[in-house]
Amino acid sequence: MKNKRTTLVHLIYFSRLNLAADAPTRARQLGEITRQAQKKNEFSVITSFLVVEQNFAAQVIEGERMSVNETFARISNDTRHRDVQIVEWREIVKREFVNSFATGIRSAANDALFQKANLMPMFQRGTPRAATIHALAGALQAESMSKQGIDHLFV
Ligand SMILES: Cc1cc2nc3c(=O)[nH]c(=O)nc-3n(C[C@H](O)[C@H](O)[C@H](O)COP(=O)(O)O)c2cc1C
């Protein structure tokens, strides 16, 4: 029998971003979060995907149980967002995301995927479904991979 020493889990949460309203400042703020998160996640072998729609964020965080817990503890204390709520935490068999920290921000280029997911009414009610967030993050990753010409690796 294979000796299973680590437990792989994913945590999905959503929050309200406290970012600036003007686009350049907002982009700079998101860039800063990305830089910090990438470095930390690489070190902790965390893979993740952050979905951003208006002032709502939802993130899937995958990794070893303790690493995910520690990462989420830091994230939930960050004043750059508020009302951080766990949507789902569970064991997973394998990772679904390839980058330590990737972001999908709603834009004209990916509008169809966001429209299909229709997360906004769920965010506003405070009840986004884990499966919807997960599927949208997966679709945004697939689209980005495809643009880079490496989709054949992720069938
Ligand atoms: C929306 C959002 C997503 C974040 N995602 C991560 C992440 O995936 N990993 C991480 O280490 N930090 C993430 N952070 C940053 C952490 O909240 C924190 O600032 C960072 O880990 C540095 O923590 P420290 O100042 O306690 O060292 C995120 C912050 C925000 C606002």
UniProtKB/TrEMBL annotation:
BLUF domain residues: 8-104
PROSITE patterns, sorted: BLUF
Highest taxon, organism lineage: Bacteria
Cited InterPro entries: Acylphosphatase-like_dom_sf, BLUF_domain
A Pfam short name: BLUF
SUPFAM superfamilies named among the record's database cross-references: Acylphosphatase/BLUF domain-like
Protein name: BLUF domain-containing protein
